[in-house]
Design goal:
Beta-Lactamase, Helix Hairpins, 5-stranded antiparallel β-sheet, single chain, 5-stranded mixed β-sheet, 12 strands, 56% helix, rod-shaped, alpha+beta
């Protein structure tokens, strides 16, 4: 109100300035004075608005009559033609100011519409760029607040029943209305608090609802926001479904791989056991030493067979996202020796050097899982290192951790493959001819992480090293 009063005073002051200039400073004829008043009224209309222009028009009409139409110095008009001129001037001033105000309003509306379109475009781009760091609806609500400069935004996802909030302020007591809007497809508005609640539809079916608080926006913009939210939620659901399908596919692939691997691993000990028992049954009168040797072979291969079955079961358990470990204080050098000894058949053509640092601390480890990880690393090294080249296993303590490295003399791995090599089922295109499932390194990495450690790779020409690190205090997922 105060601003309008000030503008009105400035408008009257403008009329006074034009009158003084045209009457005293530069004596002008009525025509020139009329154009000067008209120009001033148009300027006021385009700058401030119709109310100020109306006041200036009336004041200019009176001044024009008093100072420029005969008899000058009175509000009387002697010549009837001057009445026509006076009212023509007033009408022209009012119509022109009104048109100017409308043109300015249209310009402001056009700018506002452009701004709304730009915001909707920015919101659509933001939907495409949303990642998976937080729930998708929560990020949608945050983007709404940031892009449309809202005080608060709520998004109710009918599928999950969750309400996601964003913004510096919060809504209170509208949860029921929000759910009702999603169920009924209705809309609520509260002009007093600058709030609006509307349903989010996919086709004709409401799938969610949003509540916005802040600056008022046209219904078309609100509907555009609802449509984009619907598209975003549907996109997120499609991605979730694709992820579930991929997880199911990988689980099926894992089961198939495990069955194939298990069948292959079972053949060797079963063949040895069968050969030993067949030989015993064929000649029950063999010397005691010969029978003892055959029984020893059968017993060792039976133990090997049990280990293969246990390892396969553990590998199947690693198909879950969370791995429970059952740690016990263990000497890492003993575990390394046991793994190397158990793999003599696979490593027959290679020398395996073992170097363990002095005073290695006992570490809380799940012995079965860590031995399985070491087997995977040694098996990987024996497959991909040049034939006949030696392997090395080194262990040391540093920075409150125990580190175990499996080193071979293989070629340098390309930089772009060094991270992907730990992905499940990933195999380098350069080694497709070598049998393998692409699971070994993924399994070893999962086991290291379950203990609170990590598996890393360094690769240089002629030297590739996989390092497993385990915290000496134990920080894994204990079951």
């Amino acid at each position: 109100m105060r601003e309008t009063v000030l503008r009105s005073i400035w408008s009257l002051a403008g009329v006074a300035v034009v009158t003084f200039t045209a009457h005293a400073v530069i004596p002008a004829n009525p025509t020139t004075a009329g154009f000067a008043y008209l120009l001033m009224v148009l300027l006021i209309a385009s700058t401030w608005g119709f109310v100020e222009a109306l006041l200036a028009s009336l004041a200019a009409t009176l001044a024009y009559n008093f100072f420029f139409l005969p008899p000058v110095g009175t509000f009387t008009i002697a010549d009837p033609q001057n009445w026509v001129a006076l009212f023509s001037f007033l009408a022209t001033a009012l119509i022109a100011s009104r048109l100017s105000v409308k043109a300015e309003q249209r310009a402001r509306d056009a700018v506002e519409r452009q701004r709304d379109v730009e915001r909707l475009y920015s919101f659509s781009r933001a939907i495409l760029l949303i990642g998976d760091a937080e729930p998708f609806p929560k990020q949608l609500a945050r983007q709404l607040v940031e892009i449309f400069e809202l005080d608060a935004a709520l998004l109710f996802d009918r599928r999950t029943g969750e309400i996601y909030r964003a913004g510096p302020r919060d809504f209170e007591g509208i949860e029921d209305q929000l759910r009702d809007a999603a169920l009924r497809g209705s809309t609520f508005s509260d002009a007093q608090h600058s709030r609006v609640i509307t349903a989010v539809r996919l086709g004709s079916e409401p799938i969610a609802s949003i509540a916005l608080q802040g600056a008022r926006m046209p219904d078309s913009v609100l509907q555009g926001i609802a449509n984009l939210v619907a598209i975003g939620l549907e996109r997120a659901r499609a991605e979730d479904l694709a992820h579930q399908i991929e997880v199911a596919r990988q689980s099926e692939q894992l089961r198939t791989t495990l069955i194939d691997a298990m069948a292959h691993e079972l053949k060797t000990p079963l063949t040895s056991i069968k050969a030993a028992t067949t030989s015993l049954l064929a000649d029950l009168g063999q010397p005691l030493a010969s029978r003892k040797e055959l029984l020893t072979i059968a017993d060792e291969e039976a133990n090997h067979l049990r280990e293969v079955i246990d390892d396969s079961i553990e590998m199947a358990r690693l198909d879950t996202a969370h791995i429970d470990i059952h740690p016990e204080l263990s000497r890492i050098e003993e575990m390394i020796a046991e793994v190397v000894a158990s793999m003599q058949a696979e490593l027959a053509d290679r020398a395996v050097g073992v170097a363990c640092g002095r005073d290695l601390p006992d570490v809380p480890l799940d012995r079965r899982l860590v031995k399985l990880a070491l087997k995977q690393l040694l098996d990987n090294a024996s497959k991909y290192a040049p034939p006949g080249t030696p392997l090395a296993v080194e262990a040391c303590a540093a920075d409150g951790c125990v580190r175990v490295e499996v080193i071979d003399q293989g070629g340098e791995l390309p930089a772009h493959e060094r991270q992907r090599i730990f992905e499940r089922f990933y195999r380098s295109p350069s080694v497709q001819q070598i049998p393998g499932s692409g699971l070994g390194l993924s399994i070893a990495s999962s086991i290291a992480k379950a203990h609170g450690g990590e598996l890393t790779l360094t690769s240089d020409p002629g030297r590739t090293a996989f390092r497993m690190t385990f915290p000496a205090e134990g920080k894994g997922n204990q079951g």
